[in-house]
Structures are given as C-alpha cells and as structure tokens.
Design brief:
Blueprint: H1 4-10, H2 13-35, H3 38-41, E1 46-48, H4 59-76, H5 85-98, E2 103-111, E3 121-129, E4 132-135, E5 144-151
Antiparallel strand pairs: 1-5, 2-3, 2-5, 3-4
Length: about 150
Amino acid sequence: MKTRLQKFLALDPERRRLFVQAWRLLGIMRFSISRKSFRDLVAGLKLHRETVEQISLNPESLATARRVGWAVQAAARYTPWSSTCLVQVLAAQRMLQQRQIPGVFFLGAATGDDPEQLQGLAAHAWLKCSNEFITGEAGHRRYTVISSFSWF
C-alpha cells in the first residue's frame, strides 16, 4: 500500500504543481470566506441572473480545466480545514482565471421538504467550463440555480 507521500511523488511534475497550488488556494479561499464578504470574493466577476451561454474551449484549454478540477478535488481531500463546495469553486475559479480559461460558477439553493433529506435551506456551488463540470457536480441536480458568475 502506497503512502500519501509515495502517491504524491508518483504524480507527474505538472500534477504535483497543480495539487500544491490547489491546496494553497483552498486554504486562502477558506480563510477569505471567513474574513470577507461574498461581494468581495466575487469582485471582478460578472453576475448572471439568467442562464449563461458557456464559451466553447479548445481541446487544450478544456484538458487544462479538467486537470485543475482534478487538482482541486484531490487537494480538498487532504486539507485539515473544511474545503466545502464553495471553497473548491473559488479556488478552481482563481486557477482557471490565472490560465486565461473562461468558465462559470453556479450557486444553487434547495429547501428541505423531506425531513430525511435536507433540513431548512441548503446551498451548493459548482463550476463548469464549456458545459463540462470541473468541480461540484455531485448532487447539483437537487439545487435550483439562484445566480452564476463568469469571467472573461
């Protein structure tokens, strides 16, 4: 059985760099969420209240976006803090923006009618590039989109 370090060292250099960058950004975003207003966190992004037309990406950019998604999701499993869906979306958005890759992240809400399922109001965030999920795909169907944010 491989240790965590052995698994990390077995990654190719690009994936190791992405993982470290994602881990660092997850920490920064987690800290930022506790210190800044949401408005400050999304400053510079375009708010949409209607359905957003996704920009088609070339195959290379889409492959990079997928690797960013992998890195964020993988790193989130190893953070000593809670890397919720919003933390992951914000970290991935920053990484994609640095690479000049456009995308859209969505905020959704659901109310709990079934006491076995959700209690009260629940929220979820997910990010897509070129209509492909990068983070937050799991469970997104239970949520109604309340707003979305794009860049570029």
